[in-house]
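C-alpha cells in:
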C-alpha cells in the first residue's frame, strides 16, 4: 500500500454534491484527512480554500451566501468535543449543530424576511453573536458581536438566528443611515415581527438611545406600535361582541382635577381600559410613577382599570376580551363609582 496516496477526494466523495460544502478542520480530521493534506488542498490554485481560520470550503469557486453563513457559524461556534465521526445520510449532510453562536445584525434581519434589509450577497461581513468571554476575533467575513447573555436562537433555513429585536439592536449599532434605521424599525412592528416595546428595550440596553437618528426613529416606532395596538383593540371589541365603549377620552371630577386619559371607557359600568405602549427608557421613572398614581386614583373612585399590552392583544385577544367582559359583568356587584366627567381627548 502506498501511504503517500492522497486521502481525498475518496473519504469526502459523499460531500461532492452535498447541500453544504463547508467543514471545519476538526471535522475533516475526523473524516481521516490529516492537517498536511488539508494544507495541500488549500494551497493557491488548489481544489479547496480556507475562508476563515479552521474552516474549509470544499471547492475552488466563490462561496454562496449559504456557505458564507455556515462558514461564519463554524468559525464562531464552540466545537463539539465528541470524537464520534459524523455519519452523513444518503446524498446529503445533516444540518450542523452550532453551540454558542448565532447570526445577528443585518444578515439576521434578511433571514427573518425583512424587505428593507440588504440581500445577503451584498454584505461583506456577517455579524455573529457569541458569549462575551469567548476568545474570538473578527476576521474575514465574520464580525464578532459579544453579549453577556445569549438569547434563544430561532432556526431559519437551518441557520440559528438572533431574535428580531436583538438583531435590530446589533444592526442599528453599526448604522449611520437614519432612513435605513427608520425603515428597519418600522418594518419590525408593521410586519408583525415584534412589539415596539421589545425593540426599544433592546435599544436601551445597547445604549443606543443617545443617538439622535435612533431617537427620532424610535419616536416614529412607538407611534406606529400604538396605532397597530389601537386597531387590534377596535378589532377585539367588534369580533368578540363587547359593548361599544367611548374611545380616547379624558376623565375629570366635576369642577375638579384632571384624572387622566384612557383608550376606552364604559361609563355605565365604570370600566376603563388603557393600552400600555410605553417604551422603557432610563429617564422614564417619573412616567411610570405617574401611571401608577393615575390607576390608584381611578380605582379609589370605584373605576375598574383594565391594563392591556400590545403583546397580549396580538397573542391572546380572546383572553383579553374575556377579562374585559368579566369586568363589565362584575359592575353590577360593585358599589356605584363616583361621578366623573367624560371628555374627548
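Residues out:
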Amino acid at each position: 500500500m502506498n501511504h503517500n496516496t492522497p486521502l481525498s477526494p475518496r473519504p469526502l466523495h459523499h460531500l461532492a454534491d452535498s447541500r453544504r460544502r463547508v467543514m471545519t478542520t476538526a471535522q475533516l480530521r475526523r473524516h481521516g484527512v490529516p492537517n498536511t493534506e488539508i494544507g495541500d488542498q488549500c494551497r493557491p490554485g488548489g481544489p479547496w480554500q480556507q475562508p476563515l481560520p479552521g474552516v474549509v470550503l470544499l471547492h475552488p469557486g466563490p462561496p454562496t451566501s449559504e456557505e458564507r453563513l455556515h462558514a461564519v457559524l463554524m468559525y464562531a461556534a464552540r466545537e463539539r468535543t465528541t470524537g464520534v465521526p459524523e455519519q452523513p445520510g444518503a446524498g446529503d449532510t445533516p444540518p450542523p449543530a452550532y453551540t454558542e453562536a448565532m447570526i445577528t445584525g443585518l444578515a439576521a434581519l434578511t433571514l427573518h424576511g425583512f424587505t428593507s434589509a440588504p440581500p445577503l450577497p451584498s454584505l461583506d461581513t456577517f455579524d455573529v453573536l457569541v458569549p462575551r468571554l469567548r476568545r474570538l476575533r473578527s476576521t474575514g467575513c465574520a464580525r464578532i458581536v459579544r453579549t453577556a447573555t445569549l438569547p434563544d436562537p430561532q432556526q431559519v433555513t437551518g441557520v440559528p438566528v438572533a431574535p428580531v429585536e436583538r438583531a435590530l439592536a446589533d444592526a442599528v449599532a453599526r448604522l449611520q443611515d437614519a432612513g435605513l434605521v427608520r425603515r428597519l424599525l418600522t418594518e419590525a412592528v408593521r410586519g408583525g415581527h415584534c412589539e415596539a416595546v421589545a425593540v426599544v428595550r433592546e435599544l436601551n440596553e445597547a445604549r443606543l438611545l443617545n443617538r439622535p437618528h435612533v431617537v427620532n426613529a424610535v419616536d416614529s416606532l412607538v407611534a406606529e406600535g400604538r396605532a397597530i395596538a389601537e386597531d387590534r383593540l377596535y378589532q377585539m371589541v367588534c369580533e368578540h361582541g363587547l359593548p361599544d365603549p367611548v374611545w380616547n377620552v379624558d376623565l375629570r371630577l366635576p369642577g375638579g382635577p384632571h384624572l387622566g386619559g384612557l383608550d376606552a371607557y364604559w361609563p355605565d359600568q365604570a370600566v376603563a381600559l388603557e393600552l400600555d405602549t410605553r417604551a422603557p427608557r432610563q429617564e422614564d421613572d417619573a412616567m411610570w410613577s405617574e401611571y401608577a398614581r393615575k390607576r390608584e386614583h381611578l380605582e379609589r373612585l370605584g373605576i375598574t382599570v383594565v391594563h392591556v399590552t400590545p403583546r397580549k392583544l396580538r397573542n391572546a385577544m380572546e383572553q383579553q376580551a374575556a377579562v374585559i367582559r368579566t369586568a363589565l359583568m362584575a359592575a353590577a356587584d360593585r358599589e356605584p363609582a363616583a361621578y366623573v366627567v367624560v371628555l374627548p381627548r
